[in-house]
Amino acid sequence: MIALDFNLNFLTRDLSLYLENHVKVVFFGSGVGLSLVLGFSAAYACYYLSSVAKKPQLVTGGEKFYRFLKEHCPVVSETYYPTFWCWEGRIQTLIRPFIAAKPCVEYRNEFIKTADGGQISLDWFDNDDSVCYPDTASRPTILLLPGLTGTSRESYILHMIQQSAGLGYRCVVLNNRGVSGERLLTPRTYCAANTEDLETVIDHIQSTHSAAPLLAAGVSMGGMMLANYLCRAGRETSLRAAAVFSAGWDVFESTASLEKPLNRFLFNSYLTSCLQASVNRHRQILEKLFDIDHVMKAKTIREFDERFTSIMFGYATNKEYYKAASPCHKLKSVQIPVLCLNAADDVFSPGHEGTVVRGLPINDDRQHHGNTKAAFPVEAAKQNPNVALLLTSHGGHIGFLEGIWPRRSTYMDRVFKQFMQTVIEQGSELENL
Description:
This protein is 43% helix and 12% strand. By secondary structure, the chain is α/β, with parallel strands linked by helices. A 9-stranded mixed β-sheet has the order 1-11-8-7-6-4-5-3-2, with helices on both faces. Strands 9-10 form a two-stranded antiparallel ribbon. A hairpin with a 5-residue loop joins strand 2 and strand 3. The longest helix is centred in the N-terminal third of the chain and has 28 residues. The protein is globular and about 75 Å long. The N and C termini lie far apart (90 Å). InterPro entries: AB_hydrolase_1, AB_hydrolase_4_CS, AB_hydrolase_4_sf, AB_hydrolase_fold, ABHD4. This is ABHD3 Phospholipase. Keywords: Hydrolase, Serine esterase. Belongs to the AB hydrolase superfamily. AB hydrolase 4 family. Pfam families: Abhydrolase_1 (PF00561).
């Protein structure tokens, strides 16, 4: 046994010396390894710079809004350089919640009553230390709408508040019914097609701070809800302008994309379970109207909506609900400036063969994106001078990571900050679009 141990130790030592000296010298000392590493790095850099890093495309229906954005929001003209080691859409979507820092934000919570007897939880960031706007009465207010199961604690919401705080603005986050720990008072939650709660919140903010300019930003489902509200309200809104990020413009296309095998595994099942967990928390009041056990057996978002959401809001079929929830065919009714950011590789708002982005009305961008395909309301945006679509090649769903270690500001954060600031400071130029 001693001899065997001695032989093994001797063999291990010799192998280690061989790997450390001979292989190391042959592979790297000869320059072969270094050449391979440099060659691969050069090839990857060429591919990244030619196929990944691109300028976004700006699609607008009028020259005035286009020039306003080009002049005051330089981010819309800058090349977007996604994080080089995770530029693919699914990877960006998956990584952001884990890698993004969560700035510390202290909220003031407020509950407001609704006409049906329910309650809405609002989280206020008052920014009473604002240097630029010390007068609370005139301090600009930004209303933020999180995504499908999101709350005021999502990293993308906290980053928007951090950006707003530096500009001196006040923020308020609309937490959809039942998602932020509050009790449901009525058997009703929320959906992208119904904007009654959003209207209630906007009226409440306006009555509380009537002298302050009010803007809004919605993310994912929050962006869909905001877009549907703007389409319905037209000019009858207190909002001065709005931004929409990673919205699913066509719900039929979104659900079809999310039901593809890989997307179903990565996203659909998880989001369905999150929706079911929220329903289960409020089982006691919801089971008065719904078969909760049947809802809990849903395997996809579509099945969840068929068994719960569409029924709750009185739609005859789920198709009828999805049509009402899709903002893509209604944008002609928007009557205030709206900037919409989407990535072409967002599986929640997927590209397809049917829409080709070409022939911009105002056109130093045409040469870069003559044949870009995207499932976005491009034609509708071209026909409305109040709407601008900002389309990137990469970014995923609420991703838009950039930099080597993307824990801080993202491309989406920069778009949000520049647009909100320029509307508040230069908004008079957008009158009568």
